Amino acid sequence: MNARKTNAPRTLEEFMAKAYEMEIEAADRYADFADAMETHNNLEVASLFRKMSEIEGKHATQIMAEMGWKAPPAPGKAVWEGFEGPETVPMDEVHYLMQPYHALTLALASEERAERFFARIAEAATVDSVRSAALELQGEEREHVELIKAWLAKVPRPDRNWADDPDPPRYTD
């Protein structure tokens, strides 16, 4: 699997709080990307990022319902192996001229990271309820990977000059 050591949560509550925070973080980032694409009048990609944000938000709502939580768990408790959660697309990966293919490629990479994350948790878990929940979430992420691959097959691959802008933004102080 992965050579990195993964510290598995010790309780189902702790694990699901981490999963919830991961989904919220991903939803927020996709919403930020949608806003940025709208600012640059890239409405097709903005719409795609907005849809991804909604999907991640629904996952968070689903976790709350499954856990019977009336309010979200306190934010900021999740500790990630990297700077951000495994399902969060890095800010510097987005370009104002990107096309749907690029947005889907970023989403695919984030879903694959999430799937690996849950696989590592399942492997490291010492509590059956955590292992079972991690395997279930890994399966859901695998379904998301397949869904995005299907979407990718339907969009054209950009040509190599996709980022050429005859009228690039100008920055002044």
A few lines on this structure:
By secondary structure, this protein is mainly alpha-helical. It has helices spanning 12-39, 43-67, 100-124, 128-154.
Task: Please provide a written account of the structure.
With 173 residues, this protein is an all-alpha fold. The protein has one domain: Ferritin, CATH 1.20.1260. It is built from 4 helices and no strands.
Which structural class best describes the helix and strand composition?
A: mainly alpha
**CATH top level label:** Mainly Alpha
- What is the helical fraction, as a range of percent? 55-70%
If helices are DSSP runs of H or I spanning 4 or more residues, what is the number of helices?
A: 4
What is the 3D shape?
elongated
Q: What's the arrangement of secondary structure elements?
A:
Blueprint: H1 12-39, H2 43-67, H3 100-124, H4 128-154
Helix pairs in contact: 1-2, 2-3, 3-4
Descriptors for this entry?
single chain, 173 residues, Ferritin, 4 helices, 61% helix
